[in-house]
Fold this protein.
Amino acid sequence: MKFRILNITNILALAMLLLVNHFSTVPVMYFALLELTYLSLIFFGCINISWGFFMPVLCAGKTNEHCIALSFDDGPNSYTGQILDTLNVRGVPATFFCIGKNISGSEPLLQRMMAEGHVVGNHSYSHHFWFDMFSAERMLADMRQMDEEVTRVTGLKPLLFRPPYGVMNPTLKKAIVKSGYTPIGWSIRSFDTTIKDEQKLLTRIMRQVKPGAIILLHDSMPITATILPALITQIKNRGYKIVRLDKMLNIPAYA
Ligand SMILES: [Zn+2]
């Protein structure tokens, strides 16, 4: 929607410049500046999932209640078992946006997620570095291959989709619309893949906690497994309840 408005605005501005140029010469710099601004906005629209630039993406719950949701990307992975242990002991639910190719050989982890009351979402099959350059057909085939892995192990078909690297673009929008997934983003990016200091990571997350927040974490990172008990304690001490993402957003998790 916002992308469409930007396109229309760009065409109108370009037409206006051409019209003015018809009567008196407009410096080329003005044309360059206009298109540079246009391309920059598209770029930032791609990398900022919360903008909902190409399509609406659910990034937080609309609630005043003190509840938040935890989400873990890139599993099943090295620290998924440890994270599941912590969640189980503390009685806390979460959503795992799994990578399809990681499932083979880690089926028991996926079964644990289901048995222990968590949700499994689709984070693509390949999590390919160039995923965002794929055609819509190839994206869709990749996403469906991930579904097949989940169905093979659990009998369910995920409806929640989190784009690899959190990047959106018009092609991915096409694939998502065609497939009927609900795109899910986040409102708190933990940066647990780059921050090395446990206290700094905890402080960064806690600073942003507010009603309806969705926290992005990764079960591929040791620091995430390490800080999780303290994170849960601090969230609860702040008076927040940790709920399942699909319940907070009131949407179905499976087809
Ligand atoms: Zn990822």
In short: Strands lie at 67-75, 95-98, 119-122, 160-161, 182-183, 188-189, 214-218, 241-242.
